[in-house]
Amino acid sequence: VRHPFEHHRATDAPRLSAAGDGPARTGSLRAHNLALVLRAVAAAEAPPSRSGLAARTGLTRASVSGLVDDLLAGRLVRETGVPTRSGVGRPSTGLVLDEEGPAGLGLELNVDHLAVCVVDLTGAVRVRRTAHGTSGPGQLDALVTLASDAVTEAGEQRLALSGAALAVPGLVDPATGELLVTPNLDAAGLRGALTRVAGLGGVRIMIENEATLAARAEQRALGSAAPRSFLQVSGEVGIGAGLVLDGQLYRGRHGWSGELGHVTVWPGGRGCGCGSDGCLEQYAGQQAILRAAGSPDDALGSIADRARAGEPGMLAALADAGEALGIALAGALNLLDLDAVVLGGAHAELAPWLVEPIEAQLVRRLVGAAVSRPVVRPSTLGADAAMLGAAWSVLDRVLDDPARWLSDEPSG
Amino acid sequence: VRHPFEHHRATDAPRLSAAGDGPARTGSLRAHNLALVLRAVAAAEAPPSRSGLAARTGLTRASVSGLVDDLLAGRLVRETGVPTRSGVGRPSTGLVLDEEGPAGLGLELNVDHLAVCVVDLTGAVRVRRTAHGTSGPGQLDALVTLASDAVTEAGEQRLALSGAALAVPGLVDPATGELLVTPNLDAAGLRGALTRVAGLGGVRIMIENEATLAARAEQRALGSAAPRSFLQVSGEVGIGAGLVLDGQLYRGRHGWSGELGHVTVWPGGRGCGCGSDGCLEQYAGQQAILRAAGSPDDALGSIADRARAGEPGMLAALADAGEALGIALAGALNLLDLDAVVLGGAHAELAPWLVEPIEAQLVRRLVGAAVSRPVVRPSTLGADAAMLGAAWSVLDRVLDDPARWLSDEPSG
After folding, report:
1. Any idea of the CA torsion for A150, A155, A161, A167, to the nearest 10 degrees?
2. B72-105 as b/e, with b when 16 or more CB fall inside 10 Å?
3. How many Cβ atoms from other residues are within 10 Å of residue B271's Cβ?
4. What ipTM was estimated for this complex?
């Protein structure tokens, strides 16, 4: 029996490029080439034929055929059945990713909401379940129930789960997969809930920071239009950030990168649950914005409605939040010289009121701003980004290392 | 006639791993394999034989022999002349990098000092020239004179310069190679000076941020002991930072990453030459420390001596500088979750007084600090790091793409 959960560490993530740095070892050569062919199918604009894949990958036609047969058997690709072109010889059929093959179960656990989805290998969302206002002791049971419904529905659609991933706002211990620091989340019992979710799907479950997953989702959704290096703010009660640097998701030493909400903006300022003072989330988190607008007990989701209604106290609170975000982001941009800042999570909806005060701080504080300034814009995926990122992280593992999926898959 | 200078952009840096991501194109295959063999020689603990290189690279013995012959002809490697082991058949000789082959000219231009060196392919410093207290209009002439002396001496040692690189504290325009923002440096005439230096060596000259080069030098000097991800502070009058993330030098969109000195520490605080307020360099730069100690006109180099002598005003100024550094570094570490912070430049010598107040801020402000905190320590290379990094960046280009060196090299 395998341990049901594992943390997705940067160091053990399979990387397609690794095999090319040196000699391909015998055992890994087939794995490398399977991934090469599968990625070529995934990246193709039109369904490629076996010959097309041979040309694209530099492998021989015979090698490609053998690899494609393995991918077909494992339901990673399927034939379109439509000959890709007429000509002499046997007609060739096009290959596409198989939407009836492995699927990823993505879960998000946040202070105010829960979300679960099942995504197939083509990236299509096949099942989606969300719940709001579920904080407190029953939250983990509610998450397991959502997951159970989603797994049942995935089974009805004959999808084979290849894994599950949970997005959480907090630091995960890379050794044990447990949440370490969760000032905004009741994490008791999380291990038990994860084990129950893993048992539902008969799969392992990874746990990762939600901001990191949301940034990966944004990158995937934008495809070749994604900025090369960007920071994606994940604004909720806390504020996380996902970092894509030079096209790669950056996780940091323990997977703890992106703790933007605890960057000091006003030293000696408001005390924070983390033990420090002047943290960004005390000025620009959802709870902080409500508090500044004089209504700390209102629903978190009411901020945008009240700003749209032109409530002066809320507009002032958002301007202050934008200023604090701008100070923190100017620091991040001075350090990292990024192409873009993406406002995600709850901050995506608040972008109309946040972008201007953020940009005012960048003009003032960012070296080189007079010559070139990064774009500041809302996320394309809005509130779904972390949940989708979790499901896609499962599928990325299949795409990066199809050989593992092929050998893990139950026979029959 | 080629344009004599170019900026080392992240996007055009040759990467050994690139060829492995997909099929190697015919034209690039030899280039890839030449680099593979040269890097294997560079990385070997003992001089490898041709057979050893074949085993290490996965190439055939015949391919390796042909590639080694090319590298020998281009003086990139040489034979030790000592058989690596006895046995049947022809004795094999070991191969090492050729210290009489291509060399890199590294220059550093800073507010208070100039430095020039010539480094050979093995990393040995063959020529070193420095000058202090040379700020002002004559500074660029002094730099050209130092470079001229160094080039002459390299010629006497029969070294062939493969290029030159200049380390500067400031932003370089990636399109034109010109300095854009140099609040602390008189940059007039820099283009002319660079052209003169390039002419001296008959080579092209790159220009890059000194903090980035210093971090690369630290990484190279530490070899396999280098932290996987670290930030290296380059403290002078201004404060830059070099970033190595997941083992790779990170430059950012324009090569402007690491502007730590302009991270806002105290919003609304001291005005800065960059137009902002509360910038780190106004609290922790050399000039700021002298000013805080009540002696703004003293020599920059006097800070450590006065601290060693126990002067109370200087000790208080250093404690405040350390606090400001700690606030800025806690922000960087919350974002990047690094293994280490390295204090370089003038801050290397000041580490005995800075480390404690920095760590106090990290304990307070860094999420996860209770579980795991990064090391904070002085640079191993001290003040030479940027100059060495400049020379090594030239040699990195040769090691990454020896085919270019072989084809550029004058015949005969």
Report:
1. 0
2. eebbbbbbeeeebeeeeeeebebbbbbbebbbbb
3. 11
4. 0.85
> Which H or E run includes B77?
strand B77-83
Chain B, nearest residue to A233 by Cα: B335
For residue B179, the surrounding DSSP H or E stretch is strand B179-181
Q: How far is CA B66 from CA A15, B30, B60, B91, in A?
A: 31, 10, 10, 18
Chain A / chain B CB contacts < 8 angstroms: 178
Q: Which residues of B touch A20 (CB under 8 A)?
A: 17, 19-21
B-facing residues of A in 329-348 (CB < 8 A) are: 330-332, 334-339
**Of B194, B232, B195, the residue nearest B212 (C-alpha):** B232
- In the numeric block, the tokens 């200078």 are attached to B5
Contact A243 B335 (CB under 8 A): yes
CB B407: neighbour CB atoms within 10 A?
10
Residue B71 identity (one-letter amino acid): L
Which candidate, B368, B326, B373, B374, places its Cα nearest to that of B347? B326
Q: Give A306's contacts (C-beta < 8 A, 6+ positions apart).
A: A293, A314
> A183: Cβ–Cβ under 8 A, 6 or more apart, which residues?
A170, A238, A272, A273, A274
Digit-coded pLDDT (tens) for B158-196: 999 999 999 988 777 767 767 776 655 656 678 888 888
* DSSP letter for each residue of B121-164: TTS-EEEEEEEES--STTHHHHHHHHHHHHHHHHHHTT-EEEEE
- Could you read off the pLDDT of A180-232 as tens digits, one per residue? 766 556 666 788 888 888 888 888 898 888 999 999 999 999 988 999 999 99
B276 in contact with A, Cβ within 8 Å: yes
Q: Which burial class, exposed, middle or buried, applies to A236 when counting CB atoms under 10 A from its CB (0-12, 13-18, 19+)?
A: buried
So what's the pLDDT on residue A87?
52
> Comparing A125-129, A291-295, A390-394, B407-411, which segment has the lowest mean pLDDT?
B407-411
State the virtual CA torsion across A345, A351, A354, A358 in degrees, nearest 10: 90
Q: Average pLDDT of B45-61?
A: 91
Query: DSSP per residue over A203-220, as a string?
Result: S-EEEEEHHHHHHHHHHH
Q: Which two tokens mark A267?
A: 């030293």
Radius of gyration of chain A from its Cα atoms, rounded to whole angstroms: 23
Give the E-state strand segments of B199-351 in sequence order: 205-209, 230-235, 239-245, 248-250, 340-345
To 10 degrees, what angle do helices B190-201 and B139-156 make? 10
- Cα A297 to chain centroid, rounded: 30
- Identify whether the C-beta of residue B164 lies closer than 8 Å to the C-beta of residue B205: yes
Whether residue A265 lies within 8 A of chain B, CB to CB, comes out as yes
User: A13 CA to chain B: closest CA distance, Å?
Assistant: 13
Q: Is B121 on the interface with A (CB under 8 A)?
A: no
> What is the C-alpha separation between A39 and A34, in angstroms, rounded?
9
Segment 38-97 of chain A within 8 Å of chain B by CB: 56-59
The per-residue pLDDT for A27 is 55
Alpha-carbon distance values, A12 to A174, A389, A397, A407 (Å)? 11, 18, 11, 18
CA distance A371 to A184: 39
The DSSP H or E segment spanning A102 is strand A102-109
Terminal alpha carbon distance of chain B: 20
**CB–CB of B372/B339 below 8 Å?**
no
Element housing B33 (H / E): helix B26-43
Question: CB–CB of B331 and A334 under 8 A?
Answer: no
Among A341, A69, A375, which Cα is nearest to A231's?
A: A341
- Interchain CB contact of A224 with B (< 8 Å): no
pTM for the structure as a whole: 0.85
